[in-house]
User: Fold this.
Amino acid sequence: MDSAEFDKFADEYLALHARNIAITGEQPEFFAEYKVRDVYEILAAEGRSVARILDFGAGIGSSAVYFGSYFADARLVCVDVSLRSLLLGRQRCTEGAEFVAFDGATLPFADGSVDLVFAGCVFHHIPYEKHVPILKELRRVLVPGGMLSVFEHNPLNPLTVHAVQACPFDDHAVLIRAGAMRARLRQAGFEVPSLRYRIFFPHALRGLRPLERRLTRLPLGAQYHVFATR
Assistant:
């Protein structure tokens, strides 16, 4: 999907997203928060702190409030190709986040200037042939030892596939298997990407969600999380 297509859906993104995931019994905020919380818990377990975070493909800034909660001392920069999404993001997130346009190829940041790069369900919108060049660009802006966190929809989960096929702003999306994403990260020069499968139970079965920590290797979760270091 190009910037014009993203612009077209920016104003109704939240409503479309909420309608599309209604089958889960959750709101978009649930999915936005769990991703940021996952990253926070991984970094906390390793005793690592971050000063600057890049939210790549941030859209209208849905994750910004959660970065503000979990990473209160970090500076957040939200990047997207959609100028309309960035405008809406600035209006929604009046404090603590910077919104910057991305030309689709080169990030307007210096080498080694970011501690953490976060990409929440972005790469299935990006043509396959651009994955490795963009991952290399993300690696470029990371500090040595910095972390890249990539969440994607799992094409092995039938409900996920159905939701993507029914979603207007996913018309041109191509879902990516976790193994393929890990391989592309290695091609881009990242160190041993780790993988967790996520979101196994809908809201109606939320009492079972504590079990998900034992299921992260089971390739049936609705999404997966690949994280790697420079």
